Automatic annotation (TrEMBL):
Keywords: ATP-binding, Nucleotide-binding, Transport. InterPro entries: AAA+_ATPase (IPR003593), ABC_transporter-like_ATP-bd (IPR003439), ABC_transporter-like_CS (IPR017871), P-loop_NTPase (IPR027417). Pfam families: ABC_tran. It comes from Sphingomonas cremea. PROSITE patterns: ABC_TRANSPORTER_1 (PS00211), ABC_TRANSPORTER_2 (PS50893). It comes from the Bacteria. This is ABC transporter ATP-binding protein.
Length: 259
């Protein structure tokens, strides 16, 4: 992890009608880190991610990603910046009428229309293999895959354009513990090999302990703390204590020590 800040958020405010989700929220993400983002249900983790990637226009505040101001961008400019990150949405968001390989090819076709088969198939095959899927997954439709394989297919698509930054929204939700641990390892390995920075929303305490360099805690409409879990444990914020020091938090730590 370097000291370079790759995402800067200052004074972010988001609301839906009367409901204020974020107020005066600040956050920095460092290049090369896996930043876990946690918080109770409805604290606005996904809305925060959507604000960073330009899918949600904040009421107020500054969002800078890879040195570029993300707010009020013209579509053409935003498109150029978007190419530099990959996103795995909570439900995978694969096109159900396209095969896995075709799904991976979608962003490549969008940005590089001059790349034709068979090179396109080769690139898709490479991304599919990189995501830990067998080669025969390429011609399959999402409905033919297990939940874990669908996540990997979504990951392959997120990696299609060789991103610097990866956004993952609850990637291990719905996976069994063995599948979740394997996915964690995959992310950590990819981060090392591809020198990625990862913004990872999760409820999974095992994931937090196993692969996150730092964790940001959302509560009271803002990021109330950011640090290693050890640093967070030293704080006396009630939600943080309950989350990391509660029975599940302690079990996750014990499980990690037993690995
Ligand atoms: N497009 C929208 N219109 C209206 N309200 C929305 C919209 N998107 C999100 N919200 C509201 O914003 C709040 C935060 O939602 P968000 O999905 O970011 O929470 P979260 O922290 O990711 O929750 P979870 O852990 O349950 O996934 C919720 O109350 C949600 O209902």
């Amino acid at each position: 992890m370097s000291d370079e800040i790759i995402i800067t958020i200052r004074g972010l405010r988001n609301s839906f009608g009367e409901q204020v989700i974020h107020e005066d929220l600040d956050l920095d993400v460092r290049r090369g880190e896996i930043l876990g983002v946690v918080g109770g249900s409805g604290t606005g983790k996904s809305v925060l991610m959507r604000s960073i990637i330009g899918l949600q226009t904040p009421d107020e505040g500054e969002v800078e990603v890879l040195g570029e101001n993300m707010i009020g961008r013209e579509e053409d400019e935003a498109k150029n910046i978007r190419r530099r990150w990959g996103v795995l949405f909570q439900n995978g968001a694969l096109f159900s009428t396209l095969t896995v390989a075709e799904n991976v090819e979608v962003p490549i076709r969008e940005y590089f229309p001059f790349i034709k088969e068979p090179l396109l198939d080769e690139i898709a095959g490479y991304k599919i293999a990189m995501s830990g899927l067998p080669a025969n997954a390429g011609p399959k439709y999402p409905s033919e895959l297990s939940g874990g394989m669908r996540k990997r297919a979504g990951l392959a698509r997120a990696l299609a354009l060789d991103p610097e930054l990866l956004f993952l929204d609850e990637p291990t939700a719905g996976l069994d513990p063995i599948g979740a641990a394997a996915f964690d390892e995959l992310i950590e390995g990819l981060k090392e090999r591809l020198e990625l920075t990862v913004f990872l929303i999760t409820h999974d305490l095992d994931t937090l302990w196993a692969i996150c360099d730092r964790v940001a805690v959302l509560a009271d409409r803002k990021v109330v703390a950011v640090g290693t879990i050890e640093e967070l444990l030293a704080l006396d914020h009630p939600w943080i204590q309950e989350y990391f020091n509660g029975p599940r938090g302690r079990a996750a730590l014990a499980g990690l020590k037993g690995r």
